[in-house]
Inverse folding.
């Protein structure tokens, strides 16, 4: 039985909307008290939503007050009683809103995660597009079923093979062509040990209380290419890798759904403490060091999203010493720009017209290099956001890129 295709968010009329699913089909079987509604393409619909078909079927039962049954082996999903397709499609919209769409960006590219705290269990939607984690209404009856039947992680079985092939410890989308493994090419060329660096940072931080003092310190003394490579190499065995997906998902070696990965913990800490006047750049760096990720380029991606707000231009000036300390290679610069893409494209789309100012602030503080930003600005990518958002951000960057080109032309004329 053929089914049409509709947008997952049926309130979106855009025919080029990237998230699509089959139209839900129904078939009435039986008579009298034995009448039931079979959903022949439930698996296809659920697969498009990245949810088990048992969840959607059970949701219908909860909403209709009807018994449900499912035979996963034979791909058969049933709701007792006679229910027309229109009614079930309306209920499916409710399921999508409550258990699929990110509450922050309304993107359906989410995973369900069960977080346990003592005897309490909460279900959250982990958005791979904007990085936000938003809770579901735990009062809904379906949540009991989900907790008892937690979502499986089919990605795990593929991780090891993909991780070895790509050198990045796995990840859902290993197709991102220009995302290298977690510093896989960083060799051990010498430099001080991480223990020595720890002692030095702690000693320096003891006398620093404000960002002003931080900016005056010579933090660049121990960030030579050789020293950075050596320290990153030393950390590879103990720090979980973070995989970046085309939709912007974050994961780690153990699980893409691990809320306790060092990156997730660091990001949450920064977001929770960024408005605290007693928390400055030094404390943020020390916290990254506590999690063992202070030199990872993926940490920069997390930092940008967790630290910056709509006042990002001013905040770049405030935290320029921290950025200079953490952005030490081309990889770090690309991760920084990826974080900016998410910040302005997803979290604060009102900032898109301010992209030239943001890039100028980063460029004038020597955080990003001309070659890196020029390459970024002329190559649309869906690594961190979807392609349409990527186009908008890069389109907005054109005045800055043009300024760079003209500055180069002026320098060439002067040399002649």
């Amino acid at each position: 039985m053929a089914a049409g295709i509709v947008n997952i968010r049926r309130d979106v009329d855009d025919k080029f909307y990237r998230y699509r699913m089959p139209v839900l089909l129904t078939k009435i079987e039986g008579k009298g008290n034995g009448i039931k509604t079979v959903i022949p393409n439930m698996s296809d619909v659920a697969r498009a939503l990245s949810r088990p078909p048992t969840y959607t079927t059970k949701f219908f039962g909860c909403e209709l007050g009807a018994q449900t049954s499912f035979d996963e082996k034979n791909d058969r999903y049933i709701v007792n009683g006679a229910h027309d397709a229109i009614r079930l499609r309306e209920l499916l919209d409710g399921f999508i809103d409550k258990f699929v769409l990110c509450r922050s960006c309304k993107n359906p590219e989410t995973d369900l995660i069960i977080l346990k705290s003592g005897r309490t269990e909460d279900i959250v939607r982990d958005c791979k597009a904007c990085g936000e984690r938003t809770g579901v209404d735990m009062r809904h009856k379906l949540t009991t079923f989900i907790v008892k039947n937690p979502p499986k992680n089919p990605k795990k079985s593929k991780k090891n093979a993909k991780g070895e092939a790509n050198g990045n410890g796995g990840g859902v989308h290993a197709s991102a062509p220009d995302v290298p493994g977690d510093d896989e090419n960083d060799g051990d060329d010498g430099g001080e040990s991480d223990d020595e660096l720890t002692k030095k940072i702690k000693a320096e931080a003891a006398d620093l209380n404000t960002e002003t003092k931080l900016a005056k310190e010579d933090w660049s003394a121990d960030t030579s290419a050789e020293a950075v490579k050596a320290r990153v190499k030393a950390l590879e065995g103990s720090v979980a890798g973070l995989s970046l997906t085309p939709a912007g998902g974050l994961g780690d070696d153990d699980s893409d759904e691990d809320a306790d990965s060092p990156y997730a913990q660091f990001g949450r800490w920064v977001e929770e403490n960024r408005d605290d006047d007693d928390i400055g750049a030094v404390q943020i760096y020390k916290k990254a060091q506590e999690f063992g990720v202070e030199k990872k380029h993926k940490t920069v991606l997390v930092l940008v999203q967790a630290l910056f707000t709509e006042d990002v231009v001013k905040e770049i000036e405030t935290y320029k010493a921290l950025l200079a300390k953490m952005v030490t290679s081309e990889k770090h610069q690309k991760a920084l720009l990826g974080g900016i893409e998410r910040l302005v494209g997803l979290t604060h789309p009102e900032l898109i017209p301010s992209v030239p100012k943001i890039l100028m602030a980063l460029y004038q503080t020597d955080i990003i290099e001309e070659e890196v930003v020029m390459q970024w600005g002329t190559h649309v990518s869906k690594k961190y956001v979807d392609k349409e958002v990527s186009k908008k951000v890069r389109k907005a960057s054109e005045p800055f890129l043009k300024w760079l080109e003209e500055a180069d032309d002026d320098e060439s004329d002067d040399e002649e």
Notes: Residues 154-195, 207-223, 231-257 have pLDDT under 50 and may be disordered.
